[in-house]
Specification:
It is built from 11 helices and 8 strands. The protein has helices at about 10-20, 35-45, 50-55, 70-75, 95-100, 135-145, 155-190, 190-215, 215-225, 230-240, 245-250; strands at about 1-5, 25-30, 45-50, 60-65, 85-90, 110-115, 125-135, 150-155. The protein has an 8-stranded mixed beta sheet. The two termini are about 40 Å apart. The protein has 2 domains: about 1-155, NAD(P)-binding Rossmann-like Domain (Rossmann fold, 3-Layer(aba) Sandwich); about 165-250, ProC C-terminal domain-like (ProC C-terminal domain-like fold).
Length: about 250
């Protein structure tokens, strides 16, 4: 499969590197405005280009990873090359109506909005896929790409925003918890690197328990909270400080 990733910023770059590792037989071309931005991708064996149009002409799937306010301009510049291609936009906050209006005369094979997160770079992403136009085959193509770098969920437009907050923005929220917990570990006597490693492994293990057992988080929490023990005292102290309410409020902004 030939892929073009237009834009090598944080999300476009993470997607390119993750797909390159997961799909070594795919031909992936990454574009950017400056040659220096592309050096690390060339070093990993990806094709690179400063010419968006040339990259798109040779691709079957085009992943648009530019800033939201640049999407319409970039699409217009690629109009002649997008015919018959599957278009995947990673830009958040663009409505179905706007995107479909911008590409209504492009004769695309399929059009999708995908909200991945940075963990696609290491094969542990969570990507939400929303189909604007396409066929079962094109949806399968898009889903298989992002399944290769983590997990996917196919959602409607309304749930796409929820997915973005929970998984894409949620990466930052989870990392902020890890930072806070590690700082507490240092206060308790661990060295910083020890604390970060311990918390990262604990979060990884907690997620693995949920996946292995398929239960609600509280079921696993109950296994740790001995009556009268220190875990329940810690949980109650966090709730008194507004832990759950703060997380939910952060998701709903």
């Amino acid at each position: 499969m030939n892929l073009a990733i237009i834009g090598a910023g944080n999300m476009g770059g993470a997607t390119a590197l993750g797909l390159a590792a997961a799909l070594p037989k795919a031909r992936i071309t990454v574009t950017a405005q400056h040659a220096s931005t592309l050096e690390k991708f060339a070093a990993r064996g990806l094709q690179t280009s400063l010419d968006n149009l040339a990259a798109v002409e040779g691709a079957e799937v085009v992943i648009l990873a530019v800033k939201p306010w640049l999407v319409r301009e970039v699409l217009e510049s690629l109009r002649t090359a997008l015919r018959g291609k599957v278009l995947v936009s990673l830009a958040a906050g663009i409505t179905d109506a706007d995107l479909l209006n911008w590409v209504k005369d492009y004769e695309l094979a399929g059009c999708y909005c995908v909200i991945p997160n940075l963990a696609v770079e290491v094969g542990e992403g969570m990507s939400f896929i929303h189909e604007l136009a396409g066929t079962p085959d094109t949806l399968n193509t898009v889903q298989s790409l992002f399944d290769a770098v983590g997990k996917t969920a196919v959602v409607d437009e309304k749930r796409l925003h929820a997915g973005m907050m929970l998984a894409s923005c949620g990466t930052a929220f989870a990392l902020r918890y890890i930072r806070a917990s590690a700082e507490g570990g240092v206060e308790l006597g661990l060295y910083p690197k020890e604390a970060i490693d311990a918390v990262a492994q604990t979060v990884r293990g907690a997620a693995a328990l949920l996946e292995a057992h398929g239960v609600h988080p509280e079921s696993e929490i109950d296994r740790v909270t001995t009556p009268g023990g220190i875990t329940i005292r810690g949980l109650n102290a966090m709730e008194d400080a507004g832990f759950s309410a703060a997380v939910i409020a952060g998701l709903k902004i």
